[in-house]
Amino acid sequence: MSTLKEILTRRPVAATIRLTISARAARPAPLVGPALGQYRLNLMAFCKDFNAWTQKYKPKTPMSITITITAFKDNTFDFTVKSPSITWYLKKAAGIELGSSWPGHTVASTITLKHVYEIAKVKQSVPYCQYMPLESICKLVIGTANAMGIKVQKELD
User: Fold this and answer.
1) CATH code of 97's domain
2) Domains: count for the chain
3) Are residues 20 and 67 located together in one domain of the fold?
4) Can you say whether residue 152 is alpha, beta or left, with left for phi > 0 and alpha for psi between -120 and 50 degrees?
5) Which of 49, 103, 137, 157 has fewest C-beta within 10 Å?
6) Tally of CB atoms within 10 A around 31
7) Percentage of residues in the chain with pLDDT exceeding 70?
């Protein structure tokens, strides 16, 4: 955490970079390297920090994580990691690659309320959802499932 004095004395932001990287897969190779290298940032430091931060996720799982890297003019950086989207969790739970091409008319797959509850528990740990009631997050997950053409049932047949 930065102190107030450090925050106030920092130089202006040079750029903000948005990337999508799989968990534990940050390498100074293409995708990460060219994006950060043009701002003369320490690639190895970023890769080490990112991989350590995503250590809690399963290894080699193609889990996309959005990162915002703020490159300051003195070549330092901060980054924030967002958790995977609700759609990613729903596709994993339903075992599908894509949702329905005609939601509301064609069912792509089916999940149970237990899946909805588990996804909501994971999303409740995200900073912007931590003060939301679990019921509200479950309603968000069900709404997203309906928009994807995934049917939610009490129990699978």
Assistant:
1) 1.10.10.250
2) 2
3) yes
4) beta
5) 157
6) 15
7) 79
Q: Hey, which bits of the chain come out as E strands?
A: 13-22, 64-72, 77-81, 109-112, 150-153
DSSP state of 129: G
Average pLDDT score over the chain: 82
**CA-wise closest residue to 111 among 70, 77, 141:** 141
In the chain, the amino acid numbered 68 is T
Region 15-30: mean pLDDT is 82
Cα-based distances in Å from 121 to 17, 64, 141: 29, 19, 11
Indicate if the pLDDT at residue 59 is higher than 60. Answer: yes
Domain boundary among 81, 101, 120: 81
**111 and 142 assigned to the same domain:** yes
Domain hosting 124: range is 86-153
Q: What is the pLDDT of residues 97-135, one digit of tens each?
A: 888 889 888 899 999 999 999 999 988 887 788 889 999
| Contact in structure between 51 and 59 (CB atoms under 8 Å) | no
Cβ atoms 89, 133 nearer than 8 A: no
